[in-house]
Amino acid sequence: MALSPAGETSGSGGSRGRRVILWRHGQTSWNVERRFQGSTDVELTGTGVAQARRAARLLAGLKPDAIIASDLKRAADTAAELAALTGLQPVHDEALRETYAGVWQGLTHDEIIARYGDEYTAWKRGEPVRRGGGELETEVADRAAPVVLRHADKLPDDGTLVVVSHGGTIRTTIGRLIGLDPRSWESLGGLTNCCWSVLGEGALGWRLLEHNAGTLPEPVLGDDD
């Protein structure tokens, strides 16, 4: 059965063998500058487009049944590369956007540490923090996880859904779907640009099968963006 965002089971009977691939968008200039993007609509760089095309060739081989994506350009353009290879029409949903982070958005990592160090440290400890006066991580999961579940429920048995989103939104969604306490979501490592995580459906709910797949290890640029 699949875990609902509230931690309750949904559906009937045992596992249907469905799979959810959560794919982070390609590189942007703000990623390179370590600038917090949040819900700011920043486009892919040329490198980001190349990353998306390479990853799309790999993901197309998994024969996805459906694609959903954040409507922000960096995610929508990443999804478009997979759509071009599979013929699937992505469904865009603003609920899959990155965390809104208020005054943090546009600041570099060093600027955030200098101006909001206590807030940043509390967040890294797993405390519920409205970074920059924006959303709590649990609120991001509240909007994103139900969208993923709704589309996953439409899959055929053994079907595959590709979700194109952002580092922070993917982390909170994974944490919610596999039933982790929100205080431990930060223990899920960040995703490199255009890498992905795979959730598989088991008898007791969703399980994390792969994390940060798709490349040899590279630095994670801008975890929550």
Automatic annotation (TrEMBL):
CDD domains, alphabetized: HP_PGM_like
Any matching Pfam family: His_Phos_1
Listed InterPro entries: His_Pase_superF_clade-1, His_PPase_superfam, PG/BPGM_mutase_AS, PGM_Phosphatase
Lineage top rank: taxon: Bacteria
The protein's name in its UniProt record: Histidine phosphatase family protein
Organism of derivation: Streptomyces hirsutus
